[in-house]
Amino acid sequence: MNFLVDPTGGMIDEALTLLAILAGNPEAKAVIAQSQPIPPLLEVIKTGSPRNRENAAAILWSLCAADVEQMRAAKAAGVEDALKELSESGTDRAKRKASSILELMRQAEEA
Question: Which member of 17, 37, 56, 80 has the greatest number of CB atoms within 10 A?
């Protein structure tokens, strides 16, 4: 997953788009989860283009909605501040995904 933040790497837009699609499939999601995706996704959410930030949030949402361990890893990595910023200034889809992840985290804390 580190290829997502390699400035010399090409096709980051396409890779994120494909990963966002694949994250909707349970088997593919499991493979993505095994690749330590949180740090590079967080970096994209912080510094990527609007479209890439949107896709990174969609991938993160797919991971966190289905896996408490991924949600804990995301929280431990410090995604909350980046998601709060994205929920205010991202694309409409990015805002929805970021807000939804933050809500999932809030609900997990209350449980």
Answer: 56
